[in-house]
């Protein structure tokens, strides 16, 4: 399947910004099963692309600087990606990061009392570790329904567990924390999802991958209750959201920002 993506991130500042720096991870990974068909284009208004590099997780990163009293920043991305489904199986571990790194908890994915209780509720009556991981995914969405506005980018897995709902980021962090607690390397994935009922979206998507012996990495979209297929474009991976966030940055001054995202993913 070939998917076309058009993604605009528009920052409005209520006062001129003397300087800001944005770290952008919006270039899809080129790998077996996912190939860039056309050049992935990133255009910037109100700022300047200063550097492109590949980070330790194999993510393509662009640094975009804003200076000179700008009042807005626009980042536009577009391109086409050809995808082949492997029923969620990514395969053998590759890259510079050793596999054991993905067992390490982070502040966002530390397994506390809530996550440990969740894994205990699973029991042990499973034919395989993969079956148990799918059961964990189903249990998370049952305990924490998808609800917007209950959490934010700094909400930890434990804080989300104590709430009444969350979004894909929260479901992913809880799944990662639980899988690491169960002894499986796990990582965060940010990317694009072609939805069946709409073209226009207001955010990118997030899901998890866990590693199993003799098979490798397998994806789990907890929020939607299945493994990623050919509708999913992997963009960035990491230990948690902070590693794989589409856009993160800093700025000087007291200006407040308003963020508007426009996203189209279609066949």
Query: What's the alpha carbon Rg, rounded to whole Å?
Result: 19 Å
Q: How does the overall form come out from the CA principal axes?
A: globular
Give the domain tally. 2
Cα separation of the termini: 7 Å
What is the CATH architecture assignment of the largest domain?
A: Roll
Q: Give the overall pLDDT as a whole number.
A: 93
Largest sheet: 8 strands, antiparallel
Beta-strand residue percentage: 35-45%
CATH topology of the largest domain: C8orf32 fold
Structural features:
alpha+beta, five-stranded antiparallel beta sheet, 5 helices, 2 domains, globular, C8orf32 fold, 267 residues
Can you describe what's shown?
The chain has five helices and 13 strands. With 267 residues, the protein is α+β, with helices and mostly antiparallel strands. The protein has two domains: 2-82 and 247-266, Immunoglobulin-like, CATH 2.60.40; 87-234, Roll (C8orf32 fold), CATH 3.10.620.30. Strands 1, 2, 3, 4, 5, 8, 12 and 13 form an eight-stranded antiparallel sheet that branches. A five-stranded antiparallel sheet has the order 6-10-9-7-11. α1 (113-122) crosses α4 and α2 packs across α4. The chain starts with a strand and ends with a strand.
């Amino acid at each position: 399947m070939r998917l076309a993506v058009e993604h605009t991130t528009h920052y409005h500042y209520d006062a001129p910004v003397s300087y800001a720096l944005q770290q952008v991870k919006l270039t899809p990974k080129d790998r077996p099963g996912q190939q860039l068909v056309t050049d992935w284009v990133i255009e910037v208004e109100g700022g300047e692309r200063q550097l492109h590099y590949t980070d330790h997780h194999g993510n393509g990163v662009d640094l975009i600087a804003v200076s000179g009293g700008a009042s807005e920043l626009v980042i536009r991305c577009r391109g086409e990606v050809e995808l082949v489904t492997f029923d969620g199986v990514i395969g053998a571990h590759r890259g510079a990061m050793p596999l054991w790194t993905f067992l390490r908890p982070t502040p966002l994915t530390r397994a506390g009392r809530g996550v440990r209780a969740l894994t205990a509720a699973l029991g042990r009556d499973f034919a395989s570790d993969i079956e148990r991981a799918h059961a964990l995914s189903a249990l998370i969405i049952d305990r924490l329904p998808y609800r917007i506005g209950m959490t934010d980018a700094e909400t930890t897995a434990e804080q989300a567990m104590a709430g009444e709902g969350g979004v894909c980021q929260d479901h992913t962090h809880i799944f990662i924390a639980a899988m690491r607690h169960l002894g499986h390397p796990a990582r965060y994935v940010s990317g694009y999802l072609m939805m069946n009922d709409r073209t226009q979206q207001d955010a990118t998507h997030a899901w998890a991958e866990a590693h199993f012996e003799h098979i490798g990495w397998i994806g789990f979209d907890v929020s939607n209750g299945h493994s990623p297929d050919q509708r999913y474009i992997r963009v960035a991976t990491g230990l948690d959201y902070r590693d794989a966030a589409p856009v993160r940055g800093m700025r000087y001054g007291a200006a407040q920002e308003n963020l508007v995202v426009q996203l189209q993913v279609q066949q």
